Amino acid sequence: MTLLDIVDLHISVEEREIIKGIDLQVEAGEIHAIMGPNGSGKSTLTNALAGQEGYQINHGSAHLEDKDLLELSVEERARAGLFLAFQYPVELPGVSNVEFLKTAVDSLRRANGLDDISTVNFMKELRQLVKKLDLDPEILKRGVNEGFSGGERKRNEIVQLLCLKPRVALLDETDSGLDIDALQTVARGIKEFRSPRTGIVLVTHYQRLLEFVQPDYVHVMLDGRLVRSGDASLALELEAKGYAWLEN
Amino acid sequence: MKPREIREFPPNIPGIEIPRARKDPWRYTTPEPFINEFSYGLSNSPSTPVSTSLGVEIYQFNNPECAQLIETYVGKVAPRGSNYLTALNRLYAKHGYVIVAKSSNKGINHVNISSGFDCCERYLIIIEENAKLSIRELTRSGNRVIECVLQKGAKLEHLRLQEETLDFEFNHTVVKLKERSNYELIQASRGGRLRRNEIEVYIAGKNTRVNLSGAWGLKEASHLDNQITVNHLVGKSTSETCFHGIVHDESKAIFNGKIYIAPGAQLTDASLQNKNLATSEKAEIYTKPELELYADDIACSHGATSGFLDPKQLFYLRSRGIEQTEAETILLNSFLKEVVEDEEALELLGLPS
């Protein structure tokens, strides 16, 4: 079953075309990695799919199952089952992690006609997730990402991923800035999210994360296009040769 | 009430200039309504202080028992003397209370001051050595001057709750701190037709600590003006001032905050912050942090910001499925809760605690 279906997508930022025609189909159960140098358009693709302002869709379509993502507001996309793990998660001073996540979970549940989650069950699950991601349970009381280190922010994104249980996760350089222990922790979280019902798009610079999370497909993005696709071995080839050999 | 006979209005008070609009410190708030209120007479409905604490004595100004205190302190707590409106208050005040928190009670004393209606009144509050006083002040309208003296080791916790009002309100609060004393203010303000809070703090003893915090949420055409000065007259003391405000609709917020550090007041640690959010393009914010420093071995910081909600924060919340309006509410509430934690203050501001 196709979860995410992107067809000939063209995206501009301030009149400049960044994404120049991308096709990507993510089937349930699959992990796709998108690799590419800085400025190739990887973050533009994920941010535009999540609905961030400032991105002009010029052409093409993007569906999550039968829902036309491009017609939906930011929150409706999340409710349709899309999740973006941010490259640079912002701080929300004074908004506690617990309050934030409970509100988010309840928003998603209500959209699906469910009652609010019981606080006891929610807290129990959340504490387990935080522990799994090697975070101090004290962070739950703190403001979202407030005073968090880079690594803590990235792990907190994975806590949110596992808590909100979307259908499709877009992970935008979740591996960058992590030491090897944190990288393995994050990889464990991603593998836990992986299931026959979910799809994952990993955006990354490096092959490093892919050593721990085996992708089904690797795509190379250069100048707003996916110029080559292959299996996991393509990542190794890129690691050895760089991107230059693909530029022609 | 019999109309007051006024030969000349506004009266000339020797040595004190009559304030003019569009001139500091009345640049963004016009003083005339506050002055004119005196000409047609303020009401006879004062606020009422109530206490059940053993260590609190409350007198009316005309009580001979407190004549000595009035003679010593009233109009004299601020070393720089009065400004025009506080001098008018002195001339016209019909009601005055002296509140004394006695050293004899080791525990915390409580006083509840509940706003009257459009009255000109005065308070003198003395906290004796090592005594502790907690004041909960509910304000709505009128012209009120409060002078507080904190003797050595005294502590004053001051919760000021300012209700939504259609009247004018002028508050002038002077607090003088002696050695090892401690003043904490939490001020929560809803909108008013025209409300001005002048707060002057004089740190006159070492090892003192001052914490001023406040938050406001203004709607419609409300106007709130906060003028705050923290004067470090001697060194080795700490002051922290932090106010956050939100202006909606066509409301207007003015914040003028000043830290003064006197010559020789070394080892002072002072900070002052004011942050503002507007939810409407028609709302107005005027904020000015000021420093006047005459000592060099000090730590001093100040800052002010004004702006709209951060689109990145909004996007983050919405990307997790939270509705736009709910996301906005979460961010606005947390912005005020960053500075005010008191439950009553949160309730007044309409925030869930």
How would you describe the overall organization of this protein?
The complex is a heterodimer of chains A (248) and B (353). Chain A has a single domain (2-246), classed as Rossmann fold (3-Layer(aba) Sandwich), CATH 3.40.50.300. Chain A is 35% helix and 30% strand. Chain A contains eight helices and twelve strands. Chain A is globular, with a radius of gyration of 18 Å. Chain B has 353 residues and is mainly beta. Chain B folds into two domains: 32-308, no CATH class; 309-353, no CATH class. Chain B is globular and about 65 Å long. Classes of the chains: A alpha/beta (248), B mainly beta (353). The A-B interface holds A 50-53, 73-75, 77-79, 83-84, 86, 89-90, 92-95, 99-101, 103-104, 107-108, 111, 143-144, 160, 164 and B 310-313, 315-324, 326-327, 330-331, 334-335, 337-338.
**Mean pLDDT across all amino acids of chain B:** 93
- Rg of Cα set of chain B: 20 Å
Strand content of chain B: 35-45%
Task: Give me the CATH fold name of chain A.
Answer: Rossmann fold
Helix content of chain A: 25-40%
Number of strands of chain A: 12
Strand/helix succession of chain A: EEEHEEHEEHHEHEHEHEEH
Distance from N terminus to C terminus of chain A (CA atoms, Å) equals: 34 Å
Q: How many individual helices of chain B?
A: 6
* Class based on secondary structure composition and strand pairing of chain A: alpha/beta
How can the largest sheet of chain A be summarized?
6 strands, mixed
Q: What are the segments of chain A in which pLDDT stays under 50 over at least 5 consecutive residues?
A: none
Portion in helices of chain B:
10-25%
